[in-house]
Amino acid sequence: MRIFDTIKQFYSEQDYLPALEVSNQLTFLYAITPSRIADVSKEFHRSQLNILESKTDENSLMLRGIVAERFGILDEIYAKELGSKFQDYSKIEPNMKQAVAVTYARAYNDFVSDCQEVSGKRFR
Fold first, then answer.
1. pTM of the predicted model, to two decimals?
2. Secondary structure of the chain: what % helix, strand, coil (to 5)?
3. Strands 121-122 and 117-118
4. pLDDT by residue (tens digit) across 91-111?
């Protein structure tokens, strides 16, 4: 399929905006046709995590959080690995907090039920 060939050209993308745009489009396509896009989306997001691992600029840190969350939704093993850091949530870097919380919920099927106490407040 031509779209997959186009996406594969971005697996080693180093720039923030093109990588974010491909991630956004893959996430949208996954919502529409998960079975057709899951493998390509996993490959792209895994490759981006590898690239972003050593980057420290602000855009890369933000993108790493986004990509980590999206990859965690796609990959159960990664979700368990990242989600396991939830117990030390206060020590997680700010750009990774949402990724850690989402992957924890996905991996351990632990969602806040209505009326459960969260941070000392009750939600309905």
1. 0.85
2. 75, 5, 25
3. antiparallel
4. 999 999 999 999 999 999 876
30 C-beta neighbours (distance < 10 Å), count: 19
Q: For residue 73, how many other CB atoms are within 10 A of its CB? A: 20
Residue owning tokens 């990588």:
19
Indicate the pLDDT class of residue 33, thresholds 50, 70 and 90. very high
Sequence-distant (6+) residues with CB within 8 A of 102 are 69, 72, 73
67: its two tokens: 């990509």
Tokens 């933000």 correspond to 62
CA distances from 36 to 44, 95, 123 (A): 14, 29, 37
Residue 2 structure tokens: 């031509």
Give me the mean pLDDT over the 81-90 stretch: 95
Higher pLDDT, 112 or 55: 55
Three-state SS across 6-39? HHHCCCCCCCHHHHHHHHHHHHHHHHHCHHHHHH
